[in-house]
Design a protein that fits this description.
- The chain is of the alpha/beta class.
- It folds into three domains: 1-105, no CATH class; 119-198, no CATH class; 200-359, Rossmann fold, CATH 3.40.50.
- The chain is 30% helix and 22% strand.
- A six-stranded parallel beta sheet has the order 13-12-11-14-15-16, with helices on both faces.
- Helix 5 (210-221) packs across helix 10 (339-355).
- The protein is elongated and about 70 Å long.
- InterPro entries: MoCofactor_Util/Proc, XdhC_CoxI, XdhC_Rossmann_dom.
- Residues 12-78, 118-180 form the XdhC- CoxI domain.
Length: 388
């Protein structure tokens, strides 16, 4: 929903009704992840995508139907057949898509959700996508770290869903939860999709050099909140790093220590040390490697620089288990030459680290392409409107 939030709220504020289609589950090589959305505005405009083009036409028609009759629909799009006019996914994947009407009447908490997202406050939206009682379908529960707003139909169900959704929100994950009709932990009868909107993960880029400028541009494109930090005021300027969210002039190790002490660095954070100057990067890496919650720590430099850096860190008392967390020299072997190519190399290693990829050419692998831990086992192909 994040990618369509602006026009969705604009139509909502004017009192209109939009059709919102959201990918809630994926199977096999689905083209878009759970949480991807496509919006049909009250004026009939289309924003976003659920499949990259394969089934958007069918979803557009379905969204118009949902807006007209006010009844949400859960539909499955599977593999297309030999008929050129059939609706399906040529990639061989399967998508479950929930299409709902969104208006002040159906989702009165939407404006508050938008405010949370825009101000980087964690918030999740739990939506009933299937229920034995059709009157529950489409109801929302807005979940925050310490509470919730709205109701899906009963206090028992609200309590169960909010507790589980808070766990997903803390991890920044989207998922379908299954309950009994009244929120029972065991049984079938209700399915709820939790769409988590956690603040953007942070990337700290230390070293105001040309490689940092290229990495900052790519990191912003990938959705990171990027901070560039360097002790040299002459180089650390917003003009040199227009894509950074903030440019800080400070000694890197002191700045990072302050951010850690303030609780502003979580387990999704990425630290890229590009200074390759021991007076900066050794004390900085001592601080970074002492932060167990950090997802990735990489440092630029030649093999010789790397060996010297390890020697200095050992002399400073950094243990082998912490040193094993250091990605150095930073990046994957892509044969990079330019700052932009090097930025791609670094980003590729970060992505592989996050999703468990091995960095091998896909053409050499026989396994499934996607490593998303939310992807589910193969399901029956085909399109099944309504409940699943």
């Amino acid at each position: 929903m994040r990618e369509v939030l602006g026009p969705l709220v604009a139509g909502w504020r004017k009192g209109g009704t939009a059709g919102l289609a959201t990918v809630v589950r994926t199977f096999e090589s689905a083209p878009r992840p759970a949480g991807a959305s496509m919006l049909v505005t009250p004026d009939g405009d289309v924003v976003g995508s659920v499949s990259g083009g394969c089934v958007e036409g069918a979803v557009y028609e379905l969204a118009g139907q949902v807006v007209a009759d006010g009844t949400p629909v859960l539909v499955r799009y599977g593999i297309s057949d030999d008929d050129a006019f059939s609706v399906g996914l040529t990639c061989g994947g399967i998508l479950d898509v929930f299409v709902e009407p969104v208006s002040r009447k159906t989702f009165e908490e939407l404006d508050a959700v938008r405010d949370d997202i825009e101000n980087s406050r964690p918030v999740g939206v739990a939506t009933v996508i299937d229920h034995l009682d059709g009157g529950w379908t489409g109801r929302h529960l807005v979940v925050r770290p310490h509470g919730f707003d709205g109701s899906v139909g009963s206090e028992r169900a609200d309590r169960a869903i909010s507790e589980d959704a808070q766990g997903l929100l803390a991890a920044g994950r989207n998922s379908v939860l299954i309950y009994g009709p009244d929120g029972e932990r065991r049984g079938e009868g209700m399915r709820v999709f939790v769409n988590s909107f956690a603040p953007r993960p942070r990337m700290f880029v230390f070293g105001a050099i040309d490689f940092a400028a290229a990495l900052t541009r790519l990191a912003a494109f990938l959705g990171y909140r990027v901070t560039v930090c360097d002790a040299r005021a002459l180089f650390a300027t917003p003009a040199r790093f227009p894509d950074a969210d903030e440019v800080i002039v400070a000694w890197p190790h002191r700045y990072l220590a302050e951010q850690l002490a303030a609780g502003l660095v979580d387990e999704r954070a990425v630290i890229c040390v590009l200074t390759h100057d021991p007076k900066f990067d050794v004390p900085l890496l001592q601080v970074a490697l002492g932060a167990p919650q950090v997802a990735y720590i990489g440092a630029m430099g030649s093999r010789r620089t790397h060996d010297d850096r390890l020697r200095r860190l050992r002399e400073a008392g950094v243990g082998e288990s912490d040193l094993a967390r250091l990605h150095s020299p930073i990046g994957l072997d892509l044969g990079s030459r330019t700052p932009e190519e090097t930025a791609v190399s670094i980003a590729a290693e970060i992505i592989a680290r996050h999703w468990g990829g091995g960095g091998e050419p896909l053409g050499r692998l026989g396994d499934r392409i996607h490593h998303d831990d939310l992807a589910e086992p193969a399901a029956r192909a085909g399109s099944t409107p309504g409940g699943l």
